[in-house]
Inverse folding.
């Protein structure tokens, strides 16, 4: 009974207290806040009016998890998650570095350790320096080496077998107009033959190379004769080259001065048949006259001889 009585007394005291505060608030126009509990992030809430009042309680945390905030290159701060209140500081730790990344603190994630040096292999003609751990590369490939180039083939690298460099090209030897030069290094024929030379072309035949005797080039010009070649009805200048039938300046005969000869080539015209007959007749008559004169002279001489003998 005594316990029940004490409880009832406490409840009544609370009611009386609330009523007293309410009467004061009613009389003054202000609430005499009471009750509620303040935390590190929120003030106490009045049980009568519901408004926040008083100060924050930095010791009444609502979340006891911690956050880690970067402080400097060596340490980070530990703070409460709920309000960010400082707890303590501790050095960065964890997050071991590699050759490809720096070390980051396990807690605050700040970068605090330099990356490790690369563990490079030796460079070759196929690969530059390459890290065994992260495949990073450095520098250039080494040049190919070894092997021997030929006139038409590249050298093969003694390390990797790849062809490289330049071909040497053929060298030496003397070409002629009928044969290519022969390389002194490999014995292969190369280049172009020399041009043919010498000889004289005509209108009927090519020039003959004086080195190899091969006909070459183009036909030459005609060799026009300065003298006239005369036919019965026309004249022309012929080509003097053997086998050529080309005619130049061919034209019919002309006798403008009626002297019986061509005015250009001086060809003497032939007599007509009538002219020939009269010439024959005239010649015959003249011959008979001459014979008669000779016979008459012989007779006269004989007569004179006979008279002398008779005396």
């Amino acid at each position: 009974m005594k316990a029940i009585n004490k409880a009832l007394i406490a409840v009544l005291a609370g009611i009386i207290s609330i009523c007293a505060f309410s009467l004061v608030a009613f009389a003054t126009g202000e609430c005499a806040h009471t009750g509620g509990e303040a935390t590190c992030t929120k003030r106490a809430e009045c049980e009568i009016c519901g408004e926040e009042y008083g100060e924050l309680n930095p010791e009444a945390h609502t979340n006891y998890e911690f956050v880690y905030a970067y402080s400097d290159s060596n340490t980070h701060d530990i703070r409460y998650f709920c309000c960010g209140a400082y707890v303590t500081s501790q050095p960065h730790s964890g997050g071991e570095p590699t050759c490809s990344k720096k070390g980051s603190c396990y807690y605050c994630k700040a970068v605090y350790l330099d990356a490790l040096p690369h563990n490079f292999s030796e460079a070759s003609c196929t690969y530059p320096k390459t890290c065994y751990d992260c495949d990073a590369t450095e520098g250039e490939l080494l040049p190919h080496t070894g092997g021997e180039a030929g006139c038409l083939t590249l050298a093969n690298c003694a390390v990797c077998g790849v062809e490289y460099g330049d071909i040497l090209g053929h060298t030496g030897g003397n070409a002629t107009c009928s044969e290519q030069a022969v390389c002194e290094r490999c014995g292969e024929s190369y280049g172009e033959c020399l041009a043919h030379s010498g000889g004289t072309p005509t209108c009927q035949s090519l020039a003959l190379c004086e080195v190899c005797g091969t006909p070459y080039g183009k036909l030459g010009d005609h060799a026009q004769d300065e003298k006239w070649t005369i036919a019965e009805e026309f004249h022309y200048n012929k080509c003097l080259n053997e086998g050529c039938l080309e005619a130049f300046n061919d034209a019919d005969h002309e006798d403008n001065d009626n002297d019986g000869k061509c005015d250009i080539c001086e060809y003497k015209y032939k007599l007509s048949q009538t002219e020939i007959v009269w010439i024959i007749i005239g010649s015959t008559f003249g011959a008979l006259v001459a014979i008669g004169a000779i016979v008459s002279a012989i007779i006269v001489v004989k007569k004179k001889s006979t008279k002398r003998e008779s005396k």
